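User: I'm writing a tutorial on reading structure tokens. Could you give me a worked example: one chain, its sequence, then its tokens, then a sentence or two explaining what the tokens reveal?
Assistant: Sure. Here is the example chain.
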Amino acid sequence: MRVAGIMSGTSLDGIDVAIVDFKGAGRSMVAFRSTGYPAAVRDAILAVSNTTTTTAAISRLNFQLGELYAKAVRDTCRRSGIPLESVGLIGCHGQTIYHESGRNTLQIGEAAVIAERLGIPVVSDFRPRDIAAGGKGAPLVPLVDYLLFRHPRLSRVALNIGGIANITVIPAAAKPGDVIAFDTGPGNMVIDALVREYTNGTQLYDFGGEIASKGVINVPFLTGLLKDPYYRAKPPKTAGREQYGVEFLERLKRSGLPMPDLIATATALTAATIANAIKRTDEVIVSGGGARNQQILKELAALLPGVRIAGSQEFGVDPDAKEALAFAILARETWRRRPGNLPSATGAKRAVVLGQVTYA
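And here are its predicted structure tokens:
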């Protein structure tokens, strides 16, 4: 079966599409493409995310994103030489615009539009069922991390640094119930927002961590940020734009620090909260946009001496593609009526089949 996974995360950098072939228990990614959001769409998403808005704005954006997702799948197939009709299923995470952990969640990107435009069934709305079963609704990638990275002798942590950073802790010879996963705190979200302001929008993120490397970390301010109770709370727990959005950015800017120092301090916050959450393991396998931020990785290595830190590409998984790959895998699980959540990661009372299916 050939499945397309669509992912657009809290970093708002665009739409990732991974096309995956499944054969028995094996899988191989045959195409991947990332399409940036138009500036107006990015601004529209920010305008309806965790803030007062209108139902009209959400409804219009919901259908607009459905059109963009369908186009992204079509373009990925065309540019990769893959016949669209060879794709038998689509898994679409959607764009999160609100997530109140364990209570409610909202992802938009109308599945009916995708199914109608492409003539392919779509699995969407993965998170609500986990919440209905008593879970946090996140993280959902741990099942995929477990399938991809478990090892009989090594303990591993799968680290994804997207807008939010999250980890999946996979003990040596782990069984599914042994896996723990949670959001550690900010990933790229805060850094990206500061960089966009500092460069007047000419840069969307800190290329390779260059700006942070030239700034000075304000240790007293960083120490204060690290006192947030979230970092000491036990999992399961999730974080998002509701914690690290506009109000958090205003708090940072009120410090009066020069912008390069603020970016350096925000980068250090990402690294420190990840390291504090990991504590000890044999290997850390990094994916997501933050895998390209050398300053985050440098600081993380200093905070985790003796731990091997490697990009997921060493394990055959494109760091940029992992979450799109994950929702292709989760869509297939749903299609086969198999659970896609790990209760040990989300806190759900039981494993459940995730998502809703929109038939073509």
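What the tokens reveal: The chain has a mean pLDDT of 95. The longest strand covers residues 26-35.
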